[in-house]
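User: My advisor, Dr. K., asked me to get a structural model of this assembly before our group meeting. I'm new to this, so sorry if the format is off. These are the inputs:
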Amino acid sequence: MDREPPCSPYAVPEGAAHLDTGSLEAPEPAAFVNHAELAILTGMDIERRNNITVTGNPEGPTVVLAHGFGCDQNMWRLTVPALVEDYRVVLFDYVGSGRSDLSAFTRDRYASLDGYAQDVVEVCEALDLKDAAFVGHSVSAMIGVLAAQAAPARIGALVMVAPSPRYIDDVDYRGGFSAEDIDELLLSLESNYLGWSSAMAPLIMGNPDRPELGEELTNSFCATDPEMARVFARTTFLSDSRDDLKAVGVPTLVLDCAQDVIAPREVGAFVQRAVPGSKLITLDATGHCPHLSAPEATNEALTTFLSGLR
Amino acid sequence: MCRTGQQPGPPGAGGEKTSKAAFAALLEDSAEELYESAPCGYLSTLMDGTIAKINATLLGWLGLEPEAVVGRMRFTDLLTVGGKLYHETHFAPLLRMQGEVGGIALEIKQADGGRIPVLVSSVIKYAGTGEPLLIRTTVFDARDRRAYEEELLRGREAAEAARKQAEAARKQAEADRARLQDALTVLQKSLLPDSLPTMPGMEAAAYYHTASVDRLGGDFYDVFAIDGKRWAFFLGDVCGKGPQAAAVTSLTRYTLRAAALHDPDPVTALNTLNKVLHERYSGGDPRYCTAVFGILEPDSATGQVTVRLASGGHPPVLVLRADGTADFLPTPGGILVGILPDPCFAAATTVLTPGDTLLLYTDGITEARTGEDRTTLYGDDALRAFATHYAGKPPQAVIKALTELLDDFGDGLDDDTALLALGVPAEDPPTKNTR
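Assistant: The format is fine. Below is the predicted structure of the whole assembly, which you can bring to the meeting.
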């Protein structure tokens, strides 16, 4: 596959193979497969559906970087350079985010984290990954836990960046938010509704036939169809995955931030306690995106953990 | 009060002085003053969001003193919880990735618990080394704009709801139409025989052309056994279309069948039908039809078939002879069935010998519009001439040729058309070209 996704911010280093489709069955990108009809999707279909980017060292162990709610794979732009030399790096957009195939979005599937975990499993299968390290930011950390359960041979380690298994406070648990707070977020999404127009959809999805349309648009990394954003927001902020944490059976690193309104430190500590054998590092970072606000510290923690896996 | 020098002030009065004073006031509007009292909120934060500088306008909106804010609060502390979440998931990442973010709708919390919808734009200031130093943010009061946007949003939601409703209605209408068509197809079928009976020593073929799938046709035909030796047939055309015509068709078909079993004489059968239709519809909505009714009496000894028929206002049947000729069997004077209490129907008789075929048809074929401008009717003579080419051919071949003719009419054929051919097989397969 020599198509460089038009939105990819990552140059492929010299000698690094791009997505190798030699083992994939489809000889040609099949006529558009409507995911809702549960057609059998080939690796090529998934590659396009989830806007998969493969970069880095093709000989190295594989690291999958998964974005959280809000934006897309561009969130990892400061992380990728720290990995490309030693690791094969896989990036993708969840269906409904970034430049994924928005037509593959179905309310039913993405109304639960399992639907997003299914995306991860399918991405792993499309690339035939084995024992990959899965780095998930925010809600993706929990999606990774579910994906590792569903496809244990595919995912061999987890890095949970600013995770939260439950955002809403509960008895004996402080997630940091009330149900009303989440409703307010949905309203905030709603009020930025006009910033997103359906005319932007083809640009955000990427248009291989007209590369000039692939120009980066201001705010486009985080622009999503408001309907899909609302589904993702509800799925993210209303889920409760606390019970899934104990089942994690792979080496796990939990990264949280010194100051994070979305995932406060006590939540990071909760996750560390719940995941057997996991390690917690609190980054000296503010906000919910340490890989953007404190990239050096984040990369340091990440590469140290990854090299320890070898 | 911002007069320029172009308009001189009143002589000797303070006009010039006033304009000078205004200009001086403008000069006194220092950068500091501009910053503090600008018609928008300004703030500068460290990269971690800690507020380092904030203008008086924004403090006024917030209802806070600078001491409570500077160095003590982060930008996200000014926001509602929903705004905080949106900031962390969208605004902050975009700002980091792009170095600037424009026109994001958020809400700020006021000290008294109120909220102000605002539009926020931020830009990162970088050091010469490319190191991000601080974030500069402007905050615009968006109360009016938000109200307008909400109106637009409500309008759009209403439009979307209306569109969905219209779509549902359209789908329902389509489903209804499909159901109606199914029902009509079933009903139409019930008005015609499923298949023609096998008659020893005879052959039969029929074709029915429906002008519109949406409307029930008014043409009908049937062939059925009377007893071991005789067969009855009829073909006709009910006045009108649609459900009412279909009801008459149904009544006609079963009346003729019953009448034929009671007394197979053709004129008697038509009289019975006339009585039924006339009685049934004399109330005010007269319904009538044209029909040919006949009896086939094969003679196994000679191979000939005697045909006795009667016509009520129907076009004459054509007899296609084995010798290659075709002629109408005249039934003059017969009038429409069901229109008069005591009508007169025309009877006729002929004998079919092997290779002969009797052709019955409705006026859909003779009244098909032909020619460039579709103004000429096909007509009896053209039909007879056409049929002559197929004289001597078995009924199936005749019907096939006529079916193709109907197809060739295209949109010139706008009425239902029924065709029925009854023939005696030739003794030997025809060897000479009868054309």
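One thing worth pointing out at the meeting: Chain B has two domains: 38-141, 194-423.

User: Perfect, thanks a lot.
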